[in-house]
Amino acid sequence: MQDTEITRRLAAWTVGLDAEAIPETVRAEGVRTFVNWLGCAVGGARHETVDRALAAALPFSGPARAQVIGRAERVDELHAALLNGISSHVLDYDDTHLKTIIHPAGPVASAILAVAETRAVSGRDFLTALIAGIEVECRIGNSVYPDHYDRGWHITGTAGVFGAAAATGRLLGLTELQMTWAFGIAATQSSGFREMFGTMCKSFHPGRAAQNGAMAAFLAKADFDSSLRAIEAPRGWANVLSTKQDYGEIVDGLGTRWEAGLNTYKPFACGIVIHPAIDGCQQLRDKLGARVADIASVELRTHPLVLELTGKTAPTTGLEGKFSVFHSAATALLYGDGSPTAFTDERVRDPAVMALRDKVKATSDGSVHEDAVHIAVTLTDGERIELHVPHAIGSLERPLSNEAIGEKFVTQSVPVIGEVASRALLAMGWALESSDDVAAIASASAAQA
């Protein structure tokens, strides 16, 4: 196989994918992915990040044809993709493809639900497009990870734009040539820096990927051309943005090896690498009971990515707290909390949390798996209690059940749209594949003005 065929082969597969060829297990995972994304989009809808983004975007919005999920406002499709991508990621509670740390649904679902509001799209066609988009972005991510990520790119934004283009292109009925162009148009808009973690820009990345990917598909539909080798060319995406290029990860086993079936869902609203520490600290809290007040020190032995990504020792905002393993361990021990309430400005500035946070020490150990942690708690009387978490809850080895995903959905959405609307929306999400028109799901998410 020549490396000049990658973009075209991926485009051909994306256009030709038959819904009947997708295994039932992968389709079921696609529904779980959508339900989880929808709950996160509603849950984040009233965050100040979304408020500010909406205020900035409204003067430039076109016809109000698409719902801002979880809010009363409607905007044009491209701005809805942007805003819903932001809201679905702002709580850092969304899905994760653990092989690449891509959050797959944000760019893809945000784009195609907005686009589906202007044309009749069945749940079955929507689900097929969602799975195709996730497969594309995760395979492209696999081809450059970890080098691309290590260089400082936020892979959800950089690879997610391809997923949004692929999924939107499916809904628009692009030809193989047009899909190839769409991937090129997506590639030239790919961006997002890890430097932005802990700021509002982190959630802007999947939102912008959704918006840019959808725009790429619309441009390609109008025969706006691009390079036919945008991914693999010497000055194309993979060679410019990474020192690793494994094109077999993109095209080998298409239709037989499904990255979309490997998605996972966060039980905690923060960076995925912190989850083992929160899981372990919650277990220790249950064991210690009132003796949590007697903790003299907490020692964490973690994978090196933990301190690299979440080493903020003194966060001052809730968004920064999501990238502090020290804050996360302290609030899990004190309150047993890893939900969005653990990462508010108020909780980060809680004197009790701050005092315990200063007692948490973390060291990197390359022998510790990414979803594992070793924890040692020493009490004031000298007693030492140790715990090893080999796989955090929410990992492929300990996946969230449908019931847990539903509970997470309701917990997030009830404060935003109320109990009745939340339960009804959750039921619509689980019934996605049988829906005649998925635009009804977006409308059902609307908060009362």
Automatic annotation (TrEMBL):
One of its GO terms (molecular function) is lyase activity. Residues 268-431 form the MmgE/PrpD C-terminal domain. Residues 8-247 form the MmgE/PrpD N-terminal domain. InterPro entries: MmgE/PrpD_sf (IPR036148), MmgE/PrpD_sf_1 (IPR042183), MmgE/PrpD_sf_2 (IPR042188), MmgE_PrpD (IPR005656), MmgE_PrpD_C (IPR045337), MmgE_PrpD_N (IPR045336). It comes from the Bacteria. Belongs to the PrpD family. PANTHER family: 2-METHYLCITRATE DEHYDRATASE, 2-METHYLCITRATE DEHYDRATASE-RELATED. This is MmgE/PrpD family protein.
